[in-house]
Structure formats: C-alpha cells, structure tokens
C-alpha cells in the first residue's frame, strides 16, 4: 500500500469523488477496467486552511481555502522501470484509458511519468492512469479548461505560452495527448533499463527548473533538431515512433497556427476544429507504421 497526503482546494470536486466516477466508467469499458488506481481508504479533514488563517487573524481568511486529504492506494510500479516494447505497451494502455475517460467527461490534465504506473496481472503488464487530484469533471467543480494545470516539462507547447499564462488557451484533449508524447521522449532519452542515466548522457535536466514559456521554447528547439538528441543505443523502432509522433504534433500545431494567422482577431480561429473528433486525432499516431509494429502481440 501507499499513502498520498495533500492539501486540496476545498471548492473543487475531490479526488475520491472523481475516482468514484472513474470506477463507474470502468464497469462498462474495458479500456478503463483494471487501468485505474485502487483506492483502499481515504479521509478528509474538515478544518480548512481558511479556518486556520481566520484563527490567526490573517486577512481574507476564506480565499483559496484548502483541506487535508489522506488517500491510501494499492502500490503500483513506475513506468520509468520499463523500456522498449514493454514501455510502449504500458504507455499505450494508459492512452486508451485516458481517451475513454475524456470522452465520458473526466479530464485528467496532468499526464506525467509519475502518473503513469503499472502492475502485473495474469502474467501481463497492466498500465494504470494514476493521480486525479488535478482532474476535473465536465459538469463538476474544478478547473474548467482555462486554468493552467499540469507538470511543466510534459505540458503541450500551446500551454507554455504567454497567452496560456493569461488564461487565453483552453486545455483540450490534444494537449493531454501531446503530454503523453513528451513523457515517452522523457523516459526513452533519460533512462536505460529502468535506471536514470548519468547527467552527461541524459537530456532535459533544465526543463524541470525552467518557467513555462522558457520550457516551451526548449521544446521547439528539440522539434526542429531531433537528431541532436538521438542516443546511439536507442531501439530503432522506438526512435522511429518517437520521431514520427513529434512530426505529427508539429504539423498539427503548424496547421492551427496558420489558421490563426488568417483571422487573428477572431476567437473562433484560435483553435479550429480542436477536439471535434478525438479518435481521428489519436489515429494520426496509431496509424504510424512503427506504432502498429510495436502494438503487435509477441
């Protein structure tokens, strides 16, 4: 077992409540069944930080109030322990789970290596989409799209801009899917056989400390010169999938950018056709030759 202790925003839908919705979806969708964390016990302490601030005489005691949660889960294994086809398979399972949940109105919004886990079941590795404390419901309390959530090194480039910092960019499905691609690159280029590479051999150390806009600029550098980041010992098919996924992302981003140039003053052109067909967008990746090759059972 593992315990998670955190201060959650009192006004938001709680993680246990979101997980209840997730379990309901898991009962009827195999892409979610077995691919979500098992919550064993939880407790919410009823005294919010606003009450503490009020007792101390701090001004505006009811602003941004938080409450303490303790959640106990079944222990899972980190995705960073995997590589090659095993890594791809668990990662792909998490993408499928995420897509179904998004369609059903549960928006994860924080795809990162620490939130992609796995465990053994009947001799198979089962991927788990973990950690829903930054998630939101389509019809619930919490971030509704324009509040920046996520872990900076893995966020979509469109969310790492000045516009996003001002709340002008809505967090959509394609942003989370792009996060999956950054997670895949992060693991492939920074780990070998589940072990963190020495500093001189790994990339992206500075991404973890940069501000949002600066990190977005670093990502563009990678997209424009991926050969400079290619490890000599990486599996050829894995590298092919990684490169082609980023080609798809860059072409999609360029297409939306050129649409915005046509009528930059019009809100409707900010993200044309964004998220109109989630399956069609995902199929741009799943139809890649390398993706299909890695998806075949052994």
Shape: globular
Spatial strand arrangement across the major sheet: 1-3-2
Q: What structural class do the secondary elements suggest? A: alpha+beta
If helices are DSSP runs of H or I spanning 4 or more residues, what is the number of helices?
Answer: 9
Account of the 3D structure:
The structure is a single chain. This protein is α+β, with helices and mostly antiparallel strands. The protein has one domain: Transferase(Phosphotransferase), domain 1 (Orthogonal Bundle). Helix content is 40%, strand content 15%. The chain contains nine helices and ten strands. The chain has helices at residues 15-26, 49-56, 84-103, 162-165, 173-190, 212-224, 236-262, 278-286, 289-295; strands spanning 2-9, 39-44, 66-73, 77-78, 106-107, 116-121, 124-129, 136-137, 191-192, 195-196. The protein has a three-stranded antiparallel beta sheet, with no helix packed on it. A three-stranded antiparallel beta sheet has the order 4-6-7. Helix 3 (84-103) packs antiparallel against helix 5 (173-190) and helix 5 (173-190) runs antiparallel to helix 7. The longest helix has 27 residues, at 236-262. It is globular, with a radius of gyration of 20 Å. The relative contact order is 0.11.
């Amino acid at each position: 077992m593992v315990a998670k202790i955190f201060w959650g925003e009192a006004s938001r839908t709680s993680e246990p409540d979101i997980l209840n919705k997730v379990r309901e979806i898991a009962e009827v969708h195999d892409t979610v069944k077995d691919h979500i964390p098992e919550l064993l016990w939880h407790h919410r302490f009823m005294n919010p930080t606003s009450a503490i601030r009020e007792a101390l005489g701090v001004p505006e005691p009811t602003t941004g109030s938080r409450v303490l949660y303790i959640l106990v889960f079944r222990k899972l294994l980190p995705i960073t322990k995997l590589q090659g086809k095993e890594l791809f398979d668990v990662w792909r399972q998490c993408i499928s789970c995420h897509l179904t949940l998004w369609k059903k109105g549960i928006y994860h919004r924080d795809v990162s290596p620490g939130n992609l886990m796995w465990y053994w079941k009947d001799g198979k590795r089962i991927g788990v989409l973990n950690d829903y404390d930054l998630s939101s419901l389509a019809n619930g309390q919490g971030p509704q799209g324009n509040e920046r959530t996520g872990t900076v090194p893995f966020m979509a480039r469109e969310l790492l801009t000045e516009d996003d910092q001002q709340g002008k960019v809505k967090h959509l499905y394609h942003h989370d899917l792009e996060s999956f691609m950054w997670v895949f690159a992060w693991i492939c280029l920074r780990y070998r056989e589940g072990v963190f590479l020495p500093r001189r051999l790994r990339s992206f150390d500075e991404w973890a400390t940069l501000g949002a806009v600066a990190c977005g600029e670093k990502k563009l550098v990678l997209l424009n010169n991926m050969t400079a980041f290619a490890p000599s010992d990486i599996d050829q098919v894995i590298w092919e999938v990684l490169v082609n996924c980023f080609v798809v992302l860059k072409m999609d981003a360029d297409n939306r950018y050129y649409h915005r140039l046509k009528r930059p003053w019009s809100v409707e052109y900010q993200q044309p056709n964004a998220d109109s067909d989630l399956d069609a967008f995902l199929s741009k990746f799943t139809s890649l030759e390398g993706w299909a090759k890695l998806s075949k059972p052994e």
